Each structure stands twice: as C-alpha cells, then as structure tokens.
Amino acid sequence: QSVLTQPPSVSAAPGQKVTISCSGSGSNIGSKDVSWYQQVPGTAPKLLIFENTKRPSGIPDRFSGSKSGTSATLGITGLQTGDEADYFCGVWDISLRVLVFGGGTKLTVL
Amino acid sequence: QVQLQESGPGLVKPSQTLSLNCTVSDFSISNGAYYWTWVRQHPGKGLEWIGYIHYSGDAFYNPSFKSRATISLDTSKNQISLKLTSVTAADTAVYYCATRSSGDCLDYWGRGTLVTVSS
C-alpha cells in the first residue's frame, strides 16, 4: 500500500479536462515539494511537474500542478489520445526518510 | 541533456547478487549537480525508490532494502552501479537509473532494464 493515495483510474473524452489527485500527510506533501511523472506503457517515466507547479522545458502548458495542505493535483486540459498513460506523484517523506510515490493513476482518453 | 543507459544481466539466481550499471552520456557524474538515483518498478506496479548517491559521497537508501543495496560511482567510466544482495523473486522488476535534482524530482531517466530472479 502506497504512502501517497491516487485514484486507480480516470477517464475523459478528447479535448476535455481531467484532474488527478494525490493525497498524503504532513510528513510528505505537507512539508516537501511534489513532482508528477507520466509513464506511457513500456517506456520510462517522464517528469511532468516539479516543485508542485513548475513544468520542465518541453512540457506543454496543458499540464499543470497545484498543492494545498497535504494534497496535490495534476491537471490536464485539451486531452489527446497521446495522453493515455499512467501518472505518478512523488515526494520526499521526512519521517520515513524515503522518496515515496503514489500507486499511479491510469488515464484513459475515451 | 543527460542520457542514461542501464545494463546488466537480465536473469539472476535467488540468493545471488544483482549487479547493474548505468552509463551516463553528455554529462559528467563528477559535476555535482545531481544525485544519481536508482528506482525500480515491479511488473504492472508502482515505482519504488532504492537510493541515491552524490559525487561528494553522500548516499541515501530506502530502509526497506535493509542494507542489501549499495550504490556507487565509477568516474573513470562515468557510470553509476547498483548492487543488491541476497535477491529473491520479489526483486524481479524493471530497474531504472535517474537523476535527482532540486525539489527531489527525478528529471532524467534511463530506459530501464528488466531483471528476473529465478533459478
């Protein structure tokens, strides 16, 4: 069981918007910066969001991140079929002294 | 842009030591900008952080590996290595090397290598 809780799956139609939640505690999300990763099946994870809200170079602004208290959210607008992937949140846990990840959310673009 | 490539045996016998290398291209591991990281992913499952090391020698490990894991740097080959002792079938996974920068994000990843533990 993961320290961070994500919904197992979300779905939406092309062009629509979807949000993926990541719920933690005061020892992780409540204290440290959250990152988000996209993993297309059969490939390595790719960094989408770092320091809660920032996008690396090359990541379109359709992807956004936010954090409030002990929860973080990834938003994706203008959904495309190419966005179908697993999405993971990650953060350092100051009590466990471990980099922890959510269990992942599978996005289906209907 | 940092390029990483994992390599090593795809099959390891139970109780033996898993040894993997990660060759870094287009960037010197001596640069000091990153912590060099290993993460694994069991088939169809989530990500599990193993540990990371800095050029300065600082190393941090996931306690769940109970001292079985060792990460080291070979600056002459620009490689990061992972050794995991006393492996069992539960260590069957895809192993990734990655760079860890500010905010504990993992910004560059290798393609990963599947290691199966089986007799």
State the major sheet of chain A: 6 strands, mixed
Query: What helical percentage do the residues of chain B reach?
Result: under 10%
Q: How much of the sequence of chain A is in beta strands?
A: 35-45%
The ordered H/E elements of chain A are EEEEEEEEE
Structure characterization notes:
The complex is a heterodimer of chains A (110) and B (119). In chain A, 0% of the residues lie in helices and 45% in strands. Chain A has 110 residues and is mainly β. Chain A is globular. The mean pLDDT of chain A is 96. By secondary structure, chain B is mostly beta strands. The N and C termini of chain B lie far apart (39 Å). Chain B has no helices and eleven strands. The mean pLDDT of chain B is 94. In chain B, the strands form two sheets. In chain B, strands 2, 4, 5, 6, 9, 10 and 11 form a seven-stranded mixed β-sheet that branches. A four-stranded antiparallel β-sheet of chain B has the order 1-3-8-7, with no helix packed on it. Helix content of chain B is 0%, strand content 52%.
Keywords for this structure?
heterodimer, A: 110 residues, mainly beta, 6-stranded mixed β-sheet, 3-stranded antiparallel β-sheet, 45% strand, B: 119 residues, 7-stranded mixed β-sheet, 4-stranded antiparallel β-sheet, 0% helix, 52% strand, globular
Short overview:
The complex is a heterodimer of chains A (110) and B (119). In chain A, 0% of the residues lie in helices and 45% in strands.
Topology:
The complex is a heterodimer of chains A (110) and B (119).
Chain A: E1 9-12, E2 18-23, E3 35-39, E4 46-49, E5 63-68, E6 71-76, E7 85-93, E8 98-101, E9 105-109
Parallel strand pairs in A: 1-9
Antiparallel strand pairs in A: 2-6, 3-4, 3-7, 5-6, 7-8, 7-9
Chain B: E1 3-7, E2 11-12, E3 18-25, E4 35-41, E5 47-54, E6 59-61, E7 69-74, E8 79-84, E9 93-100, E10 106-109, E11 113-117
Parallel strand pairs in B: 2-11
Antiparallel strand pairs in B: 1-3, 3-8, 4-5, 4-9, 5-6, 7-8, 9-10, 9-11
